[in-house]
Amino acid sequence: MLSQHLRCFSCLALSLFFLATQPVCPAGAAEPGKRPNVLILSIDDLNDWTGCLGGHPQARTPNIDRLARRGTLFSNAHCQAPICTPSRASLVTGLLPSTTGLYFLQPGLTASPVTKSRQTLPEHFAAAGYHTMGAGKFIKGNGEEKYFQQHGGALGGFGPIPPQKLAYPDGLKLWDWGPFPADEADMPDTRIADWAIARLAEPQEKPFLLVAGFWRPHVPMFAPQKWFDLFPADEVKLPETRDDDRADLPPYALDLTIGLPAPRHEWFVEHEQWDDAVRAYLASVAYVDHCVGRVLTALEASPHAENTIVVLFSDHGWHLGEKQRWAKRSLWNDSTRVPLIIAGAGQPAAQVCGRPVGLVDIYPTLLQLTGLPPITDHDGQSLAPLLADPTADWERPALTTFGPKSHSLRSTDWHYIRYADGSEELYDHQADPHEWSNLAADPGQQSRLAEFREQLPTRNADPVLSQTFTGWEVEAWQTAEKNAAARKEK
């Protein structure tokens, strides 16, 4: 849980802006039969490589970009955990990992004593009179039907998988990339878009909450050949990196972000696969953007177009060689920053908000925008004040947690990281957007560091660990703790 004075700010902001933001909702939104619908577009492992966020100069996301033009793009949005399960747990409960103890890939929601009997976002909306529908990956991927009144299934999950790996011969089957399959109809995200489009074409007696949970660009980075053709192999641009980028990082950071199960960056360089993997990620992003566009076009053609709030987000970012590492599982900007867009149903258009916000804020925001009562013990807070005025005062930083007591705090212009052993990083995003220069040892930044330290969570729940699956990030955390203890003894 965040510090007490920030909690007070959250409550005060909610109270002060509640009446002012009511025009955002359609007239009569407080009446159950007239509340706005909610369409959630969830994307797996999408970093800032979108046109509207400018994370890569070759990113092609015309549909995500047009949704941003229709609403508010939160350009400084961050996940609460840089890994799927705890990030999504935070989003659907409105609680931080440091509150629930859910830090790692396993276990899921029901293992935490804080969340096991708590209503998730779709369950709460169902109890409030909404018809809830979903398909694909939103909460955990498989077994999601229990959270929805109507569910279309995983619709293929991370598949299909070729008989032989295409690019990376070792490791997990999911760690692979290249043009596959030949037929787009075989892609799970195509099926998820089809399912969501069919639901939008149906008459609805109640307000609805509809989730399309897309799987790409999560590995395997497969997409049909035509999406690769958008990015000729000899024209792919690699992300900007520095060979000495890791030289000023604390040992705990290096231990915690060892990188498994992803291949090491050295492997990509040695086997000349860096370009091919970047190309596959760009192709996968372009493909999932196409699926998003199909659903948006169906909404625009439906009778629900004027009365539906649209939320698009990704669960965390993704490294593609930055800081000489790949995938997620870090507290650096490449792993924490995500797209977040809120549009539709009377929302202001063409807004960009640079205030630091989190996915944990989506649940309380949707409660306010649909006229439902707030949940008083949410760690997140409603973004309605920023929808009304993207430049409004916003004192709370965005918090991301990776393992017990290791936290990232992102303000409008600065990024602070404190690891469980007390080591720190500090980056000036105005001067150093790539986070190449750690300023934590700069004598001129000591007062800034002290301010960030005051904003760290006051509660750090013990980790809830799986009894059957350790997970790579658990092993990295245990290694970091062991090595930190050894350094302390010396």
Describe the protein in words.
- By secondary structure, the chain is of the alpha/beta class.
- The chain has a domain at 37-237 and 274-396: Alkaline Phosphatase, subunit A, CATH 3.40.720.
- Helix content is 30%, strand content 16%.
- The chain is built from 15 helices and 18 strands.
- It has helices spanning 4-18, 62-70, 84-93, 97-100, 121-127, 188-200, 225-228, 251-256, 265-270, 274-301, 333-336, 362-369, 384-388, 446-454, 472-489; strands at residues 37-44, 71-74, 77-78, 131-136, 150-151, 177-179, 208-217, 221-223, 308-314, 319-320, 326-327, 340-343, 351-353, 357-358, 398-401, 407-410, 414-418, 424-428.
- The strands form five sheets. An eight-stranded mixed sheet has the order 5-4-7-1-9-12-2-13, with helices on both faces.
- Strand 17 (414-418) and strand 18 form a beta hairpin.
- Helix 6 (188-200) runs parallel beside helix 10 (274-301).
- The two termini are 33 Å apart.
Topology:
Elements: H1 4-18, E1 37-44, H2 62-70, E2 71-74, E3 77-78, H3 84-93, H4 97-100, H5 121-127, E4 131-136, E5 150-151, E6 177-179, H6 188-200, E7 208-217, E8 221-223, H7 225-228, H8 251-256, H9 265-270, H10 274-301, E9 308-314, E10 319-320, E11 326-327, H11 333-336, E12 340-343, E13 351-353, E14 357-358, H12 362-369, H13 384-388, E15 398-401, E16 407-410, E17 414-418, E18 424-428, H14 446-454, H15 472-489
Parallel strand pairs: 1-7, 1-9, 2-13, 3-14, 4-5, 4-7, 6-8
Antiparallel strand pairs: 2-12, 9-12, 10-11, 15-16, 16-17, 17-18
Helix pairs in contact: 2-10, 6-10
